[in-house]
Amino acid sequence: xxxxxxxxxxxxxxxxxxxxxxxxxxxxxxxxxxxxxxxxxxxxxxxxxxxxxxxxxxxxxxxxxxxxxxxxxxxxxxxxxxxxxxxxxxxxxxxxxxxxxxxxxxxxxxxxxxxxxxxxxxxxxxxxxxxxxxxxxxxxxxxxxxxxxxxxxxxxxxxxxxxxxxxxxxxxxxxxxxxxxxxxxxxxxxxxxxxxxxxxxxxxxxxxxxxxxxxxxxxxxxxxxxxxxxxxxxxxxxxxxxxxxxxxxxxxxxxxxxxxxxxxxxxxxxxxxxxxxxxxxxxxxxxxxxxxxxxxxxxxxxxxxxxxxxxxxxxxxxxxxxxxxxxxxxxxxxxxxxxxxxxxxxxxxxxxxxxxxxxxxxxxxxxxxxxxxxxxxxxxxxxxxxxxxxxxxxxxxxxxxxxxxxxxxxxxxxxxxxxxxxxxxxxxxxxxxxxxxxx
Length: 439
Known about the structure:
The protein is α+β, with helices and mostly antiparallel strands. Helices cover 53% and strands 10% of the residues. It is flat.
């Protein structure tokens, strides 16, 4: 909407407030009443000189008559009206309402914006309850402990006579399950308290970027069709609510653009059909870094994997400190939202051997372990210099271990993080699991 789209409405409202006739105001500013009438009905634009004259005659500043926030106020009021199911006739008068009552229009627009933000929070919390591995494991643990306590208590209550040894065992089971339940509840409360954030419900700009990419299927199709990274819309994206998240998103767009330029879609997909999911062969074929192949595989168009009836791979990246700086989830192989991942991941092993690609078969810890193949690679970042610190970035691609990928190499048992891992005797454990029973 043009900057002065509501200027005429504002002029008419101010004139009426001062009790001036249209002809009187027109004579004061040196225009004809008919021309002023067209202006007041938003049928003629107002030049800066005439706007200054009108503002002086009405005793207000020019900015009061031509406010930069017109479009935002109108769209906010219109969105609120559509939400409430307003009649079409009312919608047609939104601009008039905004022009005559800018203060109330601002309140309405701000309220509508807050409603939209709260709705996003609800969606994000719902998604978190559905996909957050920690919450799922913690709730399962609490329910399991409650069920165990209830079953043991029922036996003790219903049995007429119980031998002392069995009675002692039941009492010990209740004690242990009660302690496990208490610890699980405390851990869950601490987790939820620590995760409290602002109204957006996201913990960091990184999560906003990952959410934005997830909405797009982890693929930026504009870049596949010849657009430059600067043409990808970032600034006005709702999911990117902070400048920090928009800055990170621009970096990802630039990196994705470089990957697309080095690995054009059609020849790359043809190579996959010929060689399969073999990053080493693909890197040799296209003469590009190994980690670039891993990223390109994770950011292919979703339909590429749908057509082949295979799931899109998971991708996780960490920096020299081991901090996870990017996560693309894969069903059955979860990446933690907070803290570091499993110390046994090939991702961290790659940090110890830069420039050496790894291929490691994995199985998730637990009774229902699933098999995967992980490809990991650590690359040096920045220019090499005697005085500069050594910066590294490790990338790990994870794909299901199907018949074509199966290997006889021993499987490495890993979890998502120590906090939720079922492998209780792991030598790499750095903290107790919420799945451990109390002693």
